[in-house]
Specification:
76% helix, two-stranded antiparallel ribbon, 414 residues, 2 domains, Growth Hormone, Chain: A, mainly alpha
């Protein structure tokens, strides 16, 4: 890969994750600020998962067969920019839900497209792609810190930033190296959902891992949907207790604090190969599941006055929770699948986790938040300790299920 191509792809990946990072982690705070309840917030978050289920069909049926990937990336981002502008104007729940669903249908395919464009231009993807993908994490950290410093986490500015960046990457995409369609002839639905990878379910331990991956996405959805408003409430409560009668400050820099989770992802991603070789897949997944339980206990029982360290611990554990389970799980799937079906295996588990698992998790998170909230609008109060005990309990069930049934036999298929 030429150095100039590497720079082009790095810029593309940076812009892609600015588009995503601008709104995703802050969306729930904004929705609560404009008067939506927990169930409505959970439903809106589920639109992303619906789009993740549908996007493989959009990419598989269209981008892979008829159009150059960089042109599809550009058109989708430009269309998405228009929908993002619409979201800044909407406060009605029903209209917001359907507009958000339409936007996610334009955005979700771009995640796979940017990876595909990158890898198709590389001579050694296994060595070159991690550095390009790292630019995405850097972008997420940068944009969330900017939003945090400006105090925009509960403002429509989260969509404005994403909209402007969508226009930029939408136009920039047409300057990227040509990435023409790769598939000729018909593509079946079975190929897109990865039916050939179903052979892996004959291995009981892989089936256990697959089910655990879907189930652990339920607690993951709690973190993405409820982490920001929960920690924001913790700091508001501490400020009111320490400064009675005073006006709340414009920002508590929650987004800046939560960006430490992405920073920890980078650190644990570097450590992952060494830990993987040392512990093996079973123990590294057990460590990840234990970390999920600990982090939710930290969020549930931590506060911003006497135990602020617990809130930071819950945030910083994101690197272990995500990398040690999901990234090591990708490696495990790759090893199990073998060369012939590894692509379908990765597609199948992505569809099941980010699609089905997080869809269920988003709905449950919304219902649980609403269940433990009293009052309406700005006067509502949420018992976050009870909220966080639900994902902690689910993570514990997944851990017990995994420990009892998973026995890695180191077989590969294909």
């Amino acid at each position: 890969m030429k150095p100039s191509t590497g720079i082009q792809l790095s810029v593309m990946m940076f812009l892609q994750f600015v588009v995503w990072g601008s709104w995703y982690g802050q969306l729930s705070k904004y929705l609560f600020a404009i008067g939506f309840n927990g169930i409505q917030v959970g439903n809106i978050y589920s639109t992303f998962s619906i789009a993740m289920i549908i996007s493989p069909f959009l990419v598989g049926m269209l981008a892979d067969r008829f159009f150059a990937a960089q042109k599809v990336l550009g058109i989708l981002n430009l269309a998405g920019a228009g929908l993002l502008f619409a979201l800044t104007q909407i406060t009605d729940y029903d209209v917001f839900y359907w507009t958000m669903l339409l936007y996610c249908l334009t955005f979700a395919p771009t995640i796979a497209l940017t990876s595909s464009i990158s890898m198709r231009q590389m001579t050694a993807p296994e060595k070159q792609f991690p550095l390009i993908r790292l630019m995405g994490t850097i972008a997420w950290i940068a944009v969330t810190n900017w939003i945090g410093f400006m105090g925009w986490g509960d403002k429509s500015a989260i969509f404005t930033i994403s909209m402007i960046t969508s226009v930029v990457i939408g136009l920039y995409a047409f300057t990227l190296p040509n990435t023409p369609p790769t598939i000729k002839g018909p593509v079946s639905v079975g190929q897109i959902v990865g039916k050939d990878a179903f052979v892996l379910f004959k291995d009981r331990s892989y089936a256990v891992f697959f089910i655990a991956s879907i189930l652990i996405c339920i607690p993951l959805s709690f973190y993405y949907a409820m982490g920001n408003p929960s920690i924001t409430d913790a700091y508001k409560t501490a400020f009111i207790a320490a400064h009675p009668g005073q006006t709340l400050p414009g920002t508590f820099y929650i987004e800046n604090k939560m960006s430490l989770g992405q920073a920890s992802e980078v650190i644990f991603m570097i450590l992952l190969p060494f830990v993987y070789r040392r512990l093996g897949i079973k123990w590294i997944l057990i460590v990840a599941l234990l970390s999920w339980i600990i982090r939710f206990l930290c969020f549930g029982y931590g506060n911003a006055s006497t135990s602020e360290w617990m809130l930071y611990a819950g945030i910083l554990l994101h690197g272990i929770c995500f990398d040690f389970f999901f990234v090591s799980g990708m490696i495990y799937s790759d090893q199990k699948a073998g060369e012939r079906i590894k692509s379908q295996a990765q597609g199948l588990i992505s569809l099941a986790t980010y699609g089905i698992g997080m869809y269920i998790g988003s709905l449950i998170a919304g219902y649980v938040q609403k269940m433990y909230t009293t009052g309406e609008g700005s006067s509502s109060v949420t018992n976050w300790t009870k909220v966080w005990m639900v994902p902690a309990g689910i993570a514990l069930i997944v851990l017990l299920f995994f420990v009892m049934l998973f026995k890695d036999k180191k077989k590969t298929a294909g």
